[in-house]
Every structure is written in C-alpha cells, then in structure tokens.
Amino acid sequence: MQSLEALTRDARALANGDIVPAPPLSAAEAEVARQLQICNACRYCEGFCAVFPAMTRRLEFPQADLHFMANLCHNCGACLHACQYAPPHEFAVNIPQAMAQVRGQTYVDYAWPPALGRLYQRNGLTLSLALAAGLALFLVLAVVLQGQGWAVLWQAHSGGFYGLFPHNLLVSLFAPVFLWATLALGLGVRRFWRDITPATSGAPLSAPATTEAADAVLRLRYLDGGHGEGCANEDDAYTLARRRCHHLTFYGFLLCFAATSVATAYHYLLGLPAPYDLPSLPKLLGGLGGLSLALGTAGLWRLNRRRHPDHGDAAQKPMDLGFIALLFLTATSGLALWAARGSAALPLLLCLHLGAVMALFATLPYGKFAHGIFRSASLLRHAVEKRQPNPIGLGSD
Ligand code: SF4
Ligand code: SF4
Questions:
Q1: Does residue 131 share a domain with residue 73?
Q2: What atom of ligand 1 comes closest to residue 39's alpha carbon?
Q3: Nearest C-alpha neighbor of 79 from the set 222, 188, 184, 215
Q4: Where do the TM regions start and end (predicted)?
C-alpha cells in the first residue's frame, strides 16, 4: 500500500510533467488485466507455461506488460480447461481467448508503416487479393514475354524456368518485396522490443538467456503443456499434434528458404544456373522442405478447423486459415513443379508457384507470420527477466 506521502509526491510530479501518465488500456487489455488479477491470487496454472511465472513478478499490469505477456502466451488452451473460474463461472476467466485478442491488437499497433496495420484486421481479404495479384502478374508476364498468346501457358517449354522468366527478372521482382517484408517486420518488432524492455526489468541480453529463448523457440517448448504431453485442441485431452505440425511447418519453411539461398549461391558464386537435378543440394532441400511444409500445414488446417471455439479470437480465424492455406499452396505448387519438369503443365504451375510465393512475401509483415517474430521477442525478454531478482519477492520463479 502506498503511503499518503508517496501518493502526494507522485501527484506533484505528475502535475509538473515529470511523470508521463501510463497509456489507457483498451477494453481487451483491461479484460486481460482483470483476469490476471484473479490468476495472481489463484496461481494454480503456474507450471503450464512462461506466462504464469511472469505474472507472479507483477502486482499490476500496465499496457507494455500486457503486450509482453500476450505474446508470451502460446494459446495452448491448458489454463482454460484447468480453470475453476472459467465460464460459466461468474469470474469468466478465459486466459487463452483474452490473450489472443490483445495479441492480435499488438500486431496492428506495432505494424510498420502504421497505416498498413489495418491489413491484419481484413487479413482474409488481404491474402486473397495478394494471391490474385501475384497470379495475374506472372500469367500476364508469361504471355507478354513469350509473345505467343495464352497458349504459352499449357505447352512444353524447352528453356525450363528461366526460359519463361529470366533469372534477373525474377530477382528484380522478388528481392525488393522480400527486403520490404524484412524491413517492415524488423521495424515493427523493434518498436515492440523498445516498449516491453523496460517492463521486463530493462536488463540487457545475456548468452544464457539467449540460449534458453532459442531453445524455447526451436523446440516450441510451451506447446508441451508444461508436462510434456502436449496442449489442448478440440477438448481438454492433451495432444502433441499441434506441436508436431508447427515443427513440420516451421522447419519445412526454413528448408525451402535454405534451398533458395543455396540455389542463389550456386548461381552467383559457382556459375551454376538452375534447373538442378537430383541429388543436388537445392533440389534435396527444396523437396524435403516442400514435403514437410505441405504435411505440417495440412495438419494445422485440420487442427484449426476442430479447435475449441473458446480458445481463440474468432475474428482472427480468417488470418490463421488464410496463412495456412497460402503456405500449403506454396508448398504443393513447388512440389508439383518438381514432377512437371519438361511437361506442358510447367508454365501454368510455375505461374501458380511464383504468384503464391510473391503473395506470401508481400503479406509476411501483415499476417500470421508475425506471431513467430513477436513471440520470439517475448520469450527472449522473459528469459532475461527471470534471471533478475523478483521485484515483489512473493512468487517463485
Ligand atoms: S487460469 Fe484459472 S486456474 Fe489458472 S491461475 Fe488463472 S484463475 Fe487459477
Ligand atoms: S493458453 Fe497456454 S500458453 Fe497461454 S497462458 Fe494459458 S497455459 Fe499459458
């Protein structure tokens, strides 16, 4: 309890402009703060994930703390099914849903440039338009470059990929979009980092904290439910399916990215242009990555469709499903290109694949991909914060 003297001192400092008043909480943020006050008295879920240990270091939940904790939550659902105060109890505690709503708002608030933050809110439409634009771009380019009308789209082409679209043209189209996506995501997460750092002790990064956070990200540690048996999906039963499908998707994406990077090095450093034959490294990495990505996204789609409706924010469903579908299309069209080499199906499949990749790159900073970046930043701050003395000295770490 603050003394009257301390309150008077704070009021005077506030009046003098020495204290910047905390930003007011949105309705979603106030709801998370309300629920965390109940959790802080209960603490039954302390072992489930990183959110509850972080909560025990706080008695109040200002905005930056809520943003940090909302992105620390992996939406595993475990605390909803364990909660004796969940609806229909009058306390109506539903941490996964409340956190999901604030998390979605942070993507909008930290988007760069800020005006494009609204793309998160109409994400199903954004992804559809981006895909349509990507497809149209490459279909029209194929027709214009070959000068043979629309028939060029379904006839065998002796020159392979680069006979249809010259390498330098593809680089000039994809490189700016990819650099833009990297810049936009980087600037967005930098603002987020600057806001949550003072709220999480302000201590600098250390090697042990970075190693621990990297381990939590790469193993998706907090999708294990805190006991290793997995998280909830359609009901209160534990399943490791979400964790496994996320791993297939994440590592499949990385393998595809590695295949493109190795192919770029082959082209520019070794003077070996595509197409490559088996067992070349780009082909192996791309095939393995495409397969892993296709399996992972198919699994995530199925799990998402069956997900308990109380776990998440229904308004974000189109964003989740749209991103999964776009990744699946990218993977399967890439795999189909493997099989279609030298056939009449190649031009159309190539346009489909390039259009999907272009739509994916262009929407990376304004869709579900952002959750991995913001969550990694929160995990890193959590690993730093937990190594500092507990400021209130009540809860255990
Ligand atoms: S979610 Fe429910 S059971 Fe878990 S700590 Fe909060 S109030 Fe307690
Ligand atoms: S939903 Fe899972 S990750 Fe999120 S706070 Fe609850 S137990 Fe933790």
A1: no
A2: 6
A3: 222
A4: 125-145, 165-187, 248-269, 281-301, 321-340, 346-366
* Whole-number Å distance between alpha carbons of 174 and 14: 51
Atom from ligand 2 closest to the CA of residue 48? 7
Q: Are 140 and 352 in contact (CB under 8 A)?
A: no
Please tell me whether residues 21 and 124 are part of one structural domain: no
Residue type, 155: Q
Q: Tens digits of per-residue pLDDT, 97-143?
A: 999 999 999 999 999 999 999 999 899 999 999 999 999 999 999 99
Which ligand places an atom closest to the C-alpha of 226? 2
Mutation test residue for ligand 1: of 32, 35, 38, 61, the one with most atoms within 8 Å of CB = 38
CATH of the domain at 253: 1.20.950
Task: Please determine, for residue 147, whether its predicted confidence score (pLDDT) is greater than 90.
Answer: no
Residue 321, CA distances (Å) to 127, 197, 312 in order = 10, 32, 13
Let me know whether 274 and 249 are in one domain: yes
Query: Radius of gyration of the chain from Cα atoms?
Result: 24
Verify that 30 and 89 share a domain, yes or no: yes
3-state secondary structure of 147: coil
Same domain, 177 and 77: no
Q: Is pTM, for the whole model, over 0.85?
A: yes
Share of the chain above pLDDT 90, in %: 76
Give 238's strand partners: 232
Please check whether residues 237 and 315 belong to one and the same domain: yes
The 10s digit of each residue's pLDDT in 192-245 is 999 999 999 999 999 999 999 999 999 999 998 888 889 999 999 999 999 999
How far is residue 357's CA from residue 320's CA, in Å, rounded to a whole number? 17
